[in-house]
Amino acid sequence: MHPTLADDLDRLPALLQSARDLAARELAGLSERPVVHLDTAPGRTGLPAGGAGAEGALERFAERWAPGFSGSAGPRYLGFVTGGATPASVAGDWLTSAYDQNGSGSAGSWATALERETVAWLRELFGLGEAHSGAFVTGATASNTVGLAVAREWLGERLGVSVSRDGVAALGPVDVLSGSPHSSIGKALSVLGLGRDRLRQVPVLAGNREAVDVDALDAALTGLRGRPAIVVANAGTVNTVDFDDLRAIAALKERHEFWLHVDAAFGAFAALSPAHAHLVDGLDAADSVCVDLHKWLNVPYDAAVQFTRRRDLQVAVFHNASPYLGLPTGEPDFVHLTPENSRRLRALPAWFSLMAYGSDGHREIVERNAALARALGVGVAGVEGLRLLAPVRLNVVCLTLADEPTQERVDALARAVAASGETFLTPTVYAGVPGLRAAFSNWRTAEEDVERVLAALVTASGQLERSPVG
Ligand SMILES: *Cc1c(COP(=O)(O)O)cnc(C)c1O
């Protein structure tokens, strides 16, 4: 064994203690560190030949790189839809590495049985029935890709061909219909060979909405003259957190043949809150469902879950058995269900968080985040230089400048807000108007954070008025 490696083995408990000390220090100061760093990262150094040892690596990391890491796990990082990591999930994540299990199959370890228990808990959390089976993947994009891969196989079944054997060409052109799909749907369609341009955007409801017009969807399906299709329903759009009427869409199956995939990446968490659960009414009727976990469950990257009612088709797509051995039977190992073969036990951090806080604890996070978004919405509406672009439906505040919300001025607002180090919001264009989104999904965020975010927005928009851009 390399002497430095042997030395680290001897000193492993001390090394873990040092890493723990750094992590504890960083997490204790997370709320007060700048939310983002806009300065450039240091230049690269060469590959070390003689290693520094783990303690040396820790020192160099703390010195050179840690100072530029963002506070995205903290309470006022409101860009995209970004959760943090609950205390229990961090502990679970550390142990995932310490145990270093391969979650591809059950041979010789109980690890995959733990993943199955976690999936069953999540299914219950989101109000899905036992007909849905699930597996962990790396994120909502991967989850959407798996769901649409099963949809693709289902289209083959309807048309009497096997896509997993004969290839996607056997299908001919495929119709994918959606109201306000997330950008990752186009990516998934590209990966799956279905084609980004086969995604047809169906009109949305009038009146500042992102939810699909179900009558328009009905008409679009009628236009297919019986050709089976894929419908991607959106349960929580990223701009304004609008929800498709899932029940009404599912009811269209009485007259049309389609696979219903629901992208509920963060919107599925509405199911935890009695006041908001109606937004995902009908989720169980989906043929496949995507839910992100590194967002609103507040577990570390990278974790999401995918659910489907057709595990048989999922196995047809993803099975890794030799053809002459036939398809796996009974409860298939995860190796036969997702794109990976070897895989990290990413269920463990979620298991820890669900065991530690239960559905009540996670409901409290969702409800608090929604209340804080409402509070910021009220605050923004009361600021002269700002206005809301849409009502606050769940956990996102979509806002812009009251006067001349040009791209240039809104970009300048975003830069000024980020430069304050107080908060971070990401840009969007909504109903043709450039704006910013503040998304609440972090377990740490409190009322005082909303006050600081609002103050940063007021200051930044005030600076704009004194020196207008463009
Ligand atoms: C975040 C998000 C995705 C993509 O999630 P990743 O975890 O970044 O892959 C897909 N759909 C919706 C609605 C999202 O909010």
Topology:
Layout: H1 3-10, H2 12-28, H3 53-65, H4 87-99, H5 111-125, E1 133-137, H6 140-159, H7 163-166, E2 176-178, H8 183-191, E3 199-201, H9 214-222, E4 229-234, H10 246-251, E5 258-263, E6 288-292, E7 304-308, H11 311-318, H12 347-381, E8 386-388, E9 396-401, H13 407-419, E10 426-430, E11 433-439, H14 447-466
Parallel strand pairs: 2-3, 2-4, 4-5, 5-6
Antiparallel strand pairs: 1-7, 6-7, 8-9, 9-11, 10-11
Helix pairs in contact: 2-3, 4-12, 5-12, 6-8, 6-11, 12-14, 13-14
Bound molecules: pyridoxal-5'-phosphate.
The site of pyridoxal-5'-phosphate has 13 residues, from helix 6.
In short:
The chain contains 14 helices and eleven strands. By secondary structure, it is α/β, with parallel strands linked by helices.
Describe the protein in words.
The modification N6-(pyridoxal phosphate)lysine is found at residue 295. Belongs to the group II decarboxylase family. This protein is α/β, with parallel strands linked by helices. It has two domains: 26-39 and 54-87 and 358-470, Aspartate Aminotransferase, domain 1, CATH 3.90.1150.170; 102-344, 3-Layer(aba) Sandwich (Aspartate Aminotransferase, domain 2), CATH 3.40.640. Helix content is 40%, strand content 11%. The protein has 14 helices and eleven strands. It has helices spanning 3-10, 12-28, 53-65, 87-99, 111-125, 140-159, 163-166, 183-191, 214-222, 246-251, 311-318, 347-381, 407-419, 447-466, and strands at 133-137, 176-178, 199-201, 229-234, 258-263, 288-292, 304-308, 386-388, 396-401, 426-430, 433-439. A seven-stranded mixed sheet has the order 1-7-6-5-4-2-3, sandwiched between helices. The protein has a four-stranded antiparallel sheet with strand order 8-9-11-10. Helix 10 links the parallel strand 4 and strand 5 (258-263). Helix 4 (87-99) packs antiparallel against helix 12 and helix 12 packs across helix 14 (447-466). The longest helix has 35 residues, at 347-381. The radius of gyration is 24 Å and the shape is globular. 46% of the residues are buried. Pyridoxal-5'-phosphate binds at residues 81, 139-141, 182, 184, 236, 238, 263, 265-266, 292, 304.
